[in-house]
Amino acid sequence: MALLTPTVLILIGLVLYPFFYAIWLAFSDKTVGSPGQFVGLKNFIYVLGWPQFSTAVMNTVVFTVSAVSIKFVLGMAVALVLNQQIRGRNFFRAFLLLPWAMPAFVVYLVWRWLYDPLSGLINYALIDLGLIASPIAFLSDRSTAMSSVIVAHAWRNFPFYAISFLAGMQTISQELYDSAQVDGASRVRQFRHITLPGLYQIIGVVLLLTTIQTANAFEPVYLLTGGGPSDATMVYTMLVYVMGMMNLRLGEAAAVSTLFLPLLIGLVLAVTVLLQRKANNA
Amino acid sequence: MRETLSMRVTTYALLALFVFMVAVPLFWMVATALKTNKDLYEDFSYLPTRPTLQHFVRVITREDLLTNIWNSFAVASVTTVVTVLVSALAAFSIVRYRYWGRDWVGRLILFKYLLPTAMLFVPLYAIVVALGLGNTLKALMLTYLSFTVPFCTWMLMGYFRSIPPELEEHAMVDGCTKLGALFRILLPLSAPGIVASAIFSFTLAWNEFLLALVFTTDHTTMTIPIKLSMMVVGDQYIWGQLMAGAILASVPIVFLYFLGQRFVVQGLAAGSVKG
Predict the structure, then answer these.
(1) Which residue of B lies nearest to A80 if distances are taken between CA atoms?
(2) A70: which chain B residues are within 8 Å (Cβ-Cβ)?
(3) What is the C-alpha to C-alpha distance for residues A234 and A231, in angstroms, rounded to an integer?
(4) Domain hosting residue B180, numbered range
(5) What was the ipTM of the complex prediction?
(6) Can you give the CATH number for the domain in which B126 is found?
(7) Model confidence pLDDT, tens digit, residues A35-59
(8) Residue B223, phi then psi, degrees to nearest 5
(9) Are the C-beta atoms of B209 and A219 separated by less than 8 Å?
(10) Fewer CB within 10 A of the terminal residue: chain A, N end or C end?
């Protein structure tokens, strides 16, 4: 069909071709300005034996798992609250979605300023409240950097979970809750046996999409810590950027991103299987 | 009903907590932009004691931020117009016709979801340079299609499926062409979906970071996210101006979002859940 031509050209030229080109790069010794030769598995062997790579794998897993869990719990809690009959619900709904409506780069710049050890709000407030005696260097201390990045990322992204779950909750029939009430089921039981099963499909889609997005997040790390201090927040996207754009080692950068692809696909398959099993049991 | 009373208290307590959590960073962004440098770095105060617009003035006159905002606007607008047109045609074709390779395109679109920009930016950069588009806004307008088109095609497919094909069939019986049926029947009926996909592609293009960081290298071609991120390293006492810039960069997007909030939520539902 002729109508499809532009889309097919875009998919081939800007998705498939770059994809295969990236894989070819991973098997070559290309640098900027030289055409590059096929070098077999050399880049992969180098990358796999390299401590910075395993650090990046660990950090990406830690970042993804904790960020997704926090966003899930927070998003679910917000959706449950907004699903109650509260005064000014439309206003609160719009307000609580604001972080997600803001550009991500703005959010991370704001958080960088909030975390500032010299004049940041968080340090001032904590000292003011008498909770700490001296400022904490949230982003440049190894023990706090990763959690600080995760918090900022969760703050910006939880609303997507909240609106998705809220939309799902609103399709669940009120009659189910009414009859559960008559049977004397507690709120917790109602949540476990009515709300959650009613949301399985949406939970599945949301987890799938956001796990991929979270694992591929670049901006929170680039804008907050740049991967530091001493690689404490070096996730794999940041590593690819550092290797490719700063060290100009294109082959090895491509090898890092190529190695992550099966990991991502595996993650997606695992989530899909898990959810299908859940949905079948329900 | 004691349970409902305690429920209500819990609900409002949680609501207050969430509102506080969301409000603090937003408040701090605005307060910082309005404070004097003295209030920011010497006498700390939670509220701006002498509110001033000097940071807004400075960020526009000294940092020439309007150029970068204009760059972002140009890139996002061109991307959006091309995306909506291309995606609507593709979605129409995929949903309404049967032919070889149709499912294959759908699968390719899903595959794109999986491919991280981190993997594609080096090859895309090579393409951009080969086309002679290095350090130009055209490079961004072209490469942004790689994510806006799959996303919006997918979303519009969900919308078009929800509209019964009989309406277009009747129109075609009455002598309307296939494209006529698309433009006169299907597009007007799926106006919310079109609006949603336009808002999404504009927002995605406005917010895009990694490709813009790699492709544009000087202050006159940078889009707003890159310009602001470059200002962080420049000067220790830049936060007032940076937050003023952050507000300027957010306003168009937040405005668009609330304008189309209803459509956006519907669009997500149509694209991701029913699709």
Answers:
(1) B11
(2) none
(3) 5
(4) 64-231+242-274
(5) 0.89
(6) 1.10.3720.10
(7) 778 888 888 988 888 889 999 999 9
(8) -85, 170
(9) yes
(10) C
